[in-house]
Amino acid sequence: MTLLSVAEIETLPDGVDIDGNWIFDGENVVERVRAADELKTMAESRRTERLNSARQQLVISQTKLLRGRILSEDEQSALDAWLDYIDAVNALDFNTITDKATFDAIAWPTEPV
C-alpha cells in the first residue's frame, strides 16, 4: 500500500491540515501514528525550546549579579521562580512515552509570570 501525503489529496475532511500529522492510506485521510521514539524526540525538542526560553529570562539577572549589583526582592523572586521552572522541566521523564496519549499527557510546568 502506498501512503500519500494529505497535500496530494484534492479534498480533506474538516480539521485536517497539511503539517505532517495526517496521511492518506489509500482510502481515507487518517491521523499519522508516530512511533514512541519519534514522540520522545519531539518531547525532548519541546523541552529544549522551553529551556532556551527560560534561560533568556535569566540573562538580565545574571548580568546584574556578575556586575556586582544587588537584585531587588522582585528580581530575586523572579530569578528563583525561573530556576525552579528550569529544574521542573529538566526533571520530566520521557521514558514513559509509548504513544500519542502518553505524549499528550506530559505535565509541562507552567512558566513563571
TrEMBL record:
A Pfam family: Caudo_TAP
Name of the protein in question: Tail fiber assembly protein
Domain of life assignment: Bacteria
InterPro entries noted in UniProt: Phage_T4_Gp38_tail_assem
